[in-house]
Amino acid sequence: MDLKQIFIIIILGLLLAPVWTFKMNRCYDDDELSDAADRKLRSHFLQPPEPSAVEEEEAEPSSSSCPVSLYQQRLQDMSDRSVSPWRYVLRHMKDHYPSSYAEARCLCSGCILIRDRNPPTESLDYNSVPIKQSRIFLKRELCSDGQKYHLTPVNVEVAVGCTCVRVKTSTSS
C-alpha cells in the first residue's frame, strides 16, 4: 500500500466518522423512542428472558420469617428448593428500556439447614446473599435541542437469585 492509498483511507475515515457517530447518538421523538429502544435491545443488547414476578408492593416484606415450611412440600421451582430461597419482584426504572424487570429478593437472612430427620431450620451461621448479574439497559436522555431524546447504554447490577455463604468474620489482632 502506497502513501496515496493510506491518505485516501484516512480521509474516508474522517469523513465517515461523523456519520457513524450521528447514527449511534441519533435523537428520537417521543413517538419513535420506544420502537428505537426495542430495535437496539434486540440487535445489540440481548435481554435474558424474564421470570414471572409479583409487583414490589405485593411482595413479601423482607422482615417476614424464612419459609422453612417449603421443604416439607415437593416443589419443582429452583427458587423454592434452594437453601437460600428467593422470589422475583417487579422493579421499575423510569427513563430506561426495558422500563421494568424481575429482580430476585432473598427470603431468608440465614440459610435453611436440613439435618438427618430433624425439621428444616434457618441457621444464622450462614447468610443468604443475592447473586448479581450486570445487564445493559438503554437510558433515555434529552438531546441538546431539548425536545428529542437519545438512548445511552448503561450497566445495571440485577439480583438474579440467592445463594448461601459463610458469615464474614473479622480477624482481630
Please give a handful of descriptors for the protein shown.
173 residues; alpha+beta; Cystine Knot Cytokines, subunit B; 3-stranded mixed β-sheet; 3-stranded antiparallel β-sheet; 3 helices; 8 strands; 23% helix
- The helical percent reads 10-25%
- What about the largest sheet? 3 strands, mixed
Report strand %.
25-35%
Strand order of the largest sheet: 1-2-4
Secondary-structure element sequence?
HHEHEEEEEEE
CATH level-4 homologous superfamily = Cystine-knot cytokines
Number of strands: 8
Measured on Cα atoms, how large is the radius of gyration?
Answer: 24 Å
Named CATH topology: Cystine Knot Cytokines, subunit B
Shape: elongated
Average pLDDT, rounded to a whole number, is 81
Number of helices: 3
Describe what you observe in this structure.
There is one protein chain. By secondary structure, the protein is of the alpha+beta class. It has one domain (26-166): Ribbon (Cystine Knot Cytokines, subunit B), CATH 2.10.90.10. It has three helices and eight strands, in the order H-H-E-H-E-E-E-E-E-E-E. It has helices at residues 3-24, 30-43, 78-81, and strands at 54-55, 86-92, 96-97, 100-106, 111-113, 121-123, 126-142, 149-166. The strands form three sheets. A three-stranded mixed sheet has the order 1-2-4, with no helix packed on it. Mean pLDDT is 81; it is low at 17-23. It comes from Solea senegalensis.
